[in-house]
UniProtKB/TrEMBL annotation:
One Pfam family it belongs to: MarR_2
The protein, known as: MarR family winged helix-turn-helix transcriptional regulator
UniProt KW keywords: DNA-binding, Transcription, Transcription regulation
SMART domains: HTH_MARR (SM00347)
Domain HTH marR-type: 15-150
Organism: Roseovarius ramblicola
Amino acid sequence: MGEMQGGENLLFLTDEQLRQGIEAMFFAYRGFTADPDRILATMAYGRAHHRALHFIARIPGTTVNNLLAILGVTKQSLNRVLRTLIEDGLVESRVGTTDRRERHLHLTEAGAALERRLSDAQRARMRAAYRAAGPQAVAGFRQVLEAMMEPELRRLYHAIRESDT
C-alpha cells in the first residue's frame, strides 16, 4: 500500500498502516530516550529519575501527590526515586506553608543542571525532527498524541501547558 499521502482517507486505515504507526512509536521512543539514558547510566539513575526531575523542573514547588498523578506510579516507587534524588542533593523537599503535611519539591542547582543536560539532549533531537517534518506535520503529530491520551491525563497535560501563560 506504500506511504500514506496527505489526501488519503484516514477513516479507512488498514491494520498494516496502524501496525506501522505502532512500530514507529516504539522506535521513536527508543530514540527519544537514548540520549538521556546514556547520561543517566553513568549515574546509576533511570527513566523514573528523569521523569521526576523533568516535572519538578517544569512545576517548581509541585507536591508529591501532584507528581504521583502526573507520573502514574505507586507512592512507594516515587518515594524510592525521590529519596535517592534528595540524598544525592538534586531535589529539595520543603514543608508546605499552608499545609504542613504537604511536601513541595524543588530542584537544587545540581538538580537543575542535570535536568538541563537531559532535556537539552531531547530538545535537540525533537528540534531536528520537527524541522525535518515541517509545521503541518508538527501540528498533526501533537493532535495525534493528544488524541491518544486518556481524558484525565489530557486535562492534566493542558493544565501544565496553561501554567506557562
